[in-house]
Amino acid sequence: MSAFDLTGKVAIVTGGGTGIGLGIAKGLAEAGATVVISSRRAEVGAAAVAAIEATGNGKALSLPADLRSPKDCQALVEETVRRFGRIDVLVNNSGISYRKQPQDYTLEEWSDVIDTNLRAAFLLSQAVYPHFLRQGGGKIIMVASVVAQLAAATQVAYAPSKAGMVQLARTLAVAWGKDNIQANSILPGWIDTPLSEGFRSTFPQAAAAVVERTPAGRWGVPADLAGPAVFLASSASDFVNGAALPVDGAYSIKA
Fold it and tell me: I want to staple 118 with a disulfide (CB 3.0 to 4.6 A). Which of 54, 104, 161, 207 is the partner?
């Protein structure tokens, strides 16, 4: 279906070197987009580019950046436009977390999570706006989490950062809808990624409980995020703005 075709489009995927970000990057590339992968570590981004180009679907480039730096956020967008002449899709996926009880969090850890997850999403959205405006529109996708709507004792910074991303997308949808810019969120549930590997190995009973609670009967995999991302990046979603789409196998709605 041509509405899902991303041929000629350029997309930035932050945190695109592994896990959910790589799953989304592969999906966008397969749909025809040129994908710019941002990762703190150059070798991780390079490996992701090689994995994408090995499939023969789409084109990819790695641009390392530390998204805690406002200067790096701006440079990522400007270098993408310099290389390819445009930017059509921004996927704010980069995220970190420290699993601790609230009383054990340091201010530095709190700031690290908020700056990486939420502030970077704001700065990058600001940076792409003039380019979207010049081109007549664009797409912003926030990769939030089901914990944006649920509570977890050890996610005192991560959960608010992800809830903030959802509300940021809604605010941008209202502010920039007139400019043909759509900003939406994806809310992944429990996804089998390197980030969740420590949890699964440390708490095997809790990991098994995830499967038991999930009506789909399994953990998600990064490829499960590709389809929703392609939809929200494509013209198929031109009248979808400010939405938050759970991709969790119905985990979050089970009583």
Answer: 161
Catalytic residue among 98, 105, 129, 158: 158
pTM: 0.96
- DSSP character for 155? B
In the residue annotation, 158 being an active-site residue is answered as: yes
Smallest CA-to-CA distance from 91 within 150, 169, 155 is with 169
Report the Cα–Cα distance between both ends of the chain, in Å, rounded.
36
Length of the chain (residues): 255
Helix (H, G, I), strand (E, B) or coil at 193: coil
3-state secondary structure of 5: coil
Q: Of the candidates 138, 155, 134, 133, which has an alpha carbon nearest to the alpha carbon of residue 146? A: 155
pLDDT of residue 152: 87
Which stretches of 127-252 are assigned E, i.e. beta strand? 138-143, 181-188, 244-247
DSSP letters, 77-132, are HHHHHHHHS---EEEE-------B-GGG--HHHHHHHHIIIIIHHHHHHHHHHHHH
Q: What is the pLDDT of residue 200?
A: 79
- Check whether 29 has a pLDDT greater than 80: yes
Q: How far apart are CA 61 and CA 217, in angstroms?
A: 36
The third-level CATH classification (topology) of the domain covering 2-191+222-253 is Rossmann fold (3.40.50)
Q: What are the sequence ranges of the domains in the chain? A: 2-191+222-253
The strand ranges marked E within the chain are 10-14, 34-38, 59-62, 89-92, 138-143, 181-188, 244-247
Q: Residue written as tokens 């981004």? A: 45
Q: How confident is the model at residue 118 (pLDDT cuts 50, 70, 90)?
A: very high
Taking only the tens place, the pLDDT of each residue in 135-163 is 999 999 999 999 999 988 999 999 999 99
